[in-house]
From TrEMBL:
Membrane topology, as annotated: Multi-pass membrane protein
Similarity remark: Belongs to the MgtC/SapB family.
Name this protein carries in UniProt: Protein MgtC
One Pfam family named in its UniProt record: MgtC
Species of the source: Rhodoplanes tepidamans (Rhodoplanes cryptolactis)
Keywords tagged on the record: Cell inner membrane, Cell membrane, Membrane, Transmembrane, Transmembrane helix
Length: 240
């Protein structure tokens, strides 16, 4: 052990660090336990490590150069945890999973950073609010999700998909666009992809945020009767 290490050791400062890290560990464990119980991607150990790591870096910054250093360290903690949170976000088709867990890691880092800055009360309050967001708000979210979906007021994207033979593609595309124009639906974009050697898929995305399902049903039913068309349908998906 070097002389500098012996000189820098201060019992009071060491006790202060121990309190900060212990607080961060307890709060991170509490936040992570809820995630672990729900079998999320980032669970108890991840949340606890994020909180302790944030607390350790902020505490070291304060020991070396006071509050100014702690502020700089906190800025790097925020960006670093952002990259860590991106690792738990997964895209499955049109669905995105892990956003809530990533946000929870940010909350865990915030609680740890506050503990490292000797703001113990604030760290506890942050952890309580993170836990409340993940537990107390769940019944409200479930209730909202159970409400019937109103296509007229929900921001959504409407897409029509037609499977057609390559020979009939120009005729079918023209007929579809004509019918959409007759119903005053603006088209945001079209795309053609090869399905098989004998068929193509035409995807048409509407520009409006709402549409009338009955009219879309009429359009795809009419298009489905055209020569060369194997399949015609439409779908709505809410905005991300």
């Amino acid at each position: 052990m070097s002389v500098a290490a012996l000189t820098n050791f201060d019992v009071a400062q060491f006790a202060n660090t121990l309190v900060s890290l212990t607080t961060a560990f307890v709060l991170g464990t509490a936040i992570g336990a809820e995630r672990q119980w729900r079998q999320r991607t980032a669970g108890l150990r991840t949340a606890a490590l994020v909180a302790v790591g944030a607390a350790a870096f902020v505490d070291i910054g304060m020991r070396l150069n006071g509050t100014a250093a702690a502020v700089h360290v906190l800025a790097y903690v925020v960006s670093g945890v952002g990259f860590l949170g991106a690792g738990v976000i997964m895209k499955e088709g049109l669905n995105i999973r892990g956003l809530n867990t990533a946000a929870t890691l940010w909350g865990s880092a915030a609680a740890g950073g506050a503990a490292g800055a000797d703001l113990i009360g604030e760290a506890v309050v942050i952890a309580v609010f993170v836990l409340m967001a993940n537990t107390a708000l769940r019944p409200l979210v479930d209730r909202i999700n159970r409400q019937p979906l109103d296509e007229a007021t929900t921001e959504a994207t409407y897409e029509l998909r037609i499977t057609v033979s390559p020979e009939e593609m120009p005729v079918v595309r023209g007929a579809l666009l004509d019918r959409l124009d007759a119903k005053s639906y603006a088209v945001r974009g079209t795309a053609v992809a090869e399905q098989t050697e004998d068929s193509l898929e035409l995807a048409v995305t509407l520009a409006g945020s709402s549409a009338r399902p009955g009219e879309l049903d009429e359009i795809v039913d009419a298009i489905g009767t055209l020569p060369g068309v194997d399949h015609a349908s439409w779908a709505m998906r809410t905005a991300d």
